[in-house]
Amino acid sequence: MKMIVAIVNKEDSSSVCNALTREHFKFTKVSSTGGFLKTGNTTLLIGTSDDLLEYALRTIEEHCATRTVSVAPSSLAEQNPYEMYNTRDVTVGGATVFVLDAERMLKF
Ligand code: 2BA
Predict the structure, then answer these.
(1) For the chain, which domains are there?
(2) What's the CA gap between 74 and 1, in Å, rounded?
(3) Does the CA dihedral 40-45-50-51 come out positive or negative?
(4) pLDDT tens-digit profile, the chain (108 residues)
(5) pTM of the model
(6) Residue 34 Cβ < 6 Å to ligand 1
(7) Is 5 in the pocket of ligand 1 (CB under 6 A)?
(8) Are 64 and 93 in contact (CB under 8 A)?
(9) Is the CB of 69 under 6 A from ligand 1?
């Protein structure tokens, strides 16, 4: 049994969720915030059997895209005052995915 923790760009969130539901995966959707950009994203907790892991990962991948985001000077200034006049482009996923071994799944 695996637990997939997928942090999904909010632009891709409904497309990924719809695809997972269509493919009969069960998951929990949690509203989350990126530590760097401080903008909303969606964290999906997907419990699945080992043999469906790759299929679940492919489903996520097929419904995500990376984007380039221009970070406002004010956001950077909070972290480094020397950068307050420079915007910076960052490439944002898509999805950042962790795969964990789940020892057991219990339902009460
Ligand atoms: P954020 O933390 O808001 O990061 C958004 C994007 O900013 C990142 O895209 C990355 O391109 C850039 N970035 C993040 N931290 C940076 C830093 N210290 N210096 C320069 N650039 C930085 P992604 O890597 O695609 O990450 C998208 C979101 O996935 C992140 O949003 C965060 O919520 C999550 N994430 C990424 N890596 C993670 C990790 N190792 N652990 C937990 N969450 C992670």
Answers:
(1) 2-101 (3.30.70.120)
(2) 44
(3) negative
(4) 999 999 999 999 999 999 999 999 999 999 999 999 999 999 999 999 999 999 999 999 999 999 999 887 666 556 666 666 678 899 999 999 999 999 999 999
(5) 0.91
(6) yes
(7) no
(8) yes
(9) no
Q: What is the DSSP string of 42-105?
A: EEEEEEE-GGGHHHHHHHHHHT---EEEEEPHHHHHHH-GGGTT--EEEEE-SEEEEEEE----
